[in-house]
Amino acid sequence: YASDGNVYFGSSTHSAHHGASFFKYDSATRQVTLLAEDLTTICGEDPQTNPQGKLHSDIVEAHGWLYMATHFASELPGAYDTWTGSHVIGYELATGQFRDYGVVHPNYTVYSGIGVDPARNYLYVFVTGQLPTQVSYLYRIHTVTGARTNLGQVGTAFGTSGWMFVDRRGDVWFSVFNQNGALRRVRADTGQIDVFPNALPPLYRWDAEEVTPGASEQAARWIAWMQPLDGDRAVFTLGHSGGMLYLFDSRMPIGSGQEFQQIKHIGFSDLGLAVGGGRVFYYQRANRGFGHQEFRDFHLLSVSLDPAAGYPITDHGLLEDRDGRVVWRVPGMATDGQGRVFMVGDWWTIPGDLGTLRYRYNGGVETYEQLPRGEFFAVAEVDRGFYTVTPCRVADTRDPIGPYGGPALVHGVERGFVIAGRCGVPPTATAVSLNVTVTVPTGAGHLAIYPTQGNPSPTSVLNFRAGQTRANSGLFSLDGTGALHVNGQQTPSGGTLHVLIDVNGYFR
After folding, report:
1. Which of 62, 358, 378, 399 is 20 to 30 A from 320, alpha carbon to alpha carbon?
2. Which three-class secondary structure state does DSSP give residue 40?
């Protein structure tokens, strides 16, 4: 969820001849736009022979730019041996222009940590190799000059480091899978990497608020998901299959016992988590079940970060869209902090859907298998919190001719007013609380207000007589552009009336 109020996300593929796509969801118009059909071409490479198949990293933002990294995904045997390596890509929000920072480390993939230090214009990227002789490194890239620095080895072959937290001092915190719970820190001033052995809190079972007893599981624990709360603190989970949600405070000395806090045992979770509005959202099977894909009973849940309330968990219900599709897997999730949760992932298809065509290679033959699922982008509105604004006049047809002024309404002629974006009503508003006034009507009649253009509501907002001034209040839905439509019906036909619209609150 970017600073421009829109959502940016990528698709993924295991094809040997196609790479990941990149999309934008406009939260005002509620439309998805394809920004790049194949990011391989943005990288200056041929998707037929060297596809950049996934965006497996987080997407981070600084100074009006989004930064992301590609990941190897082709399932053609031997493809990795000749693959160029992962690229870091920038996308400028204001212009829609991409910038390719090139291959981070030849024949290495980003899997998948990325973090940005806006004050120093540094981007940090974790790379790892899939071949037996390859290891794992951490790189620092200057976002202005593009200069790359290898800060050193941080793991062995095909390590996993999914998330990074860059604090307000510019220090970078991360961990790597199967390193006995070690926490690592990159010092912002020198680039030196400090290692704090066995510093991560213990891994808890997914199904009980008990420490996982297995020594091998504790040795493998690492940060499975992490996002900042502010410049000092981040929330995170531990993998694999840890059930506890934790708080990390980077101001506290490591080893002091004050740097980590258990927030709440939430049960099994995977990559699909998001933080905002004082809550952490996640998806989970019904009745705290185990599993992150293939089932049909995934719910959207959230845990409050309010300690006074005891960090309560809310089950927002089954993840099912209006047409009956249910979630197969949700590896990507974000929230605007105002009750909207954005998800990209796989949903079980219904009749009429194309669904995913999965690349397969068998005996020298390439095929595409039709799967009963497909990649979808979805928006869940978990609540429609009401927000007040100082009473403000949105429109008055007595004013000079204009979008929010005259002329007067004519009998039976629809008029639209875009409410979102005016008087403190944000573009994300879905409904508004209004006081509507009709004045100097030339005949008796009624006024209708409705969201959909060309589809007038039969319900009257208020009735009036000729020459009468009348007012009424109500809640009114907005269409996808943030507009509502008014229509005055009068007897005899051909009459006119003026309408005044005042807003005092909105729903998201």
Report:
1. 358
2. helix
